[in-house]
Design a protein that fits this description.
Length: 42
């Protein structure tokens, strides 16, 4: 039972990390887009 739980928890940990990383990248991309947009129209 324990052997079965370890990979699952590890997988969810990696999954959460990847999701967080991707959402962070998307946010920073949106921020960069906003900045460049504002810079172009100044």
């Amino acid at each position: 039972m324990v052997y079965l739980l370890i990979p699952i928890s590890y997988h969810s940990l990696v999954h959460n990390y990847t999701v967080t990383k991707h959402s962070y990248l998307i946010k920073s991309d949106n921020y960069l887009l906003l900045v460049s947009f504002a810079y172009n129209f100044h």
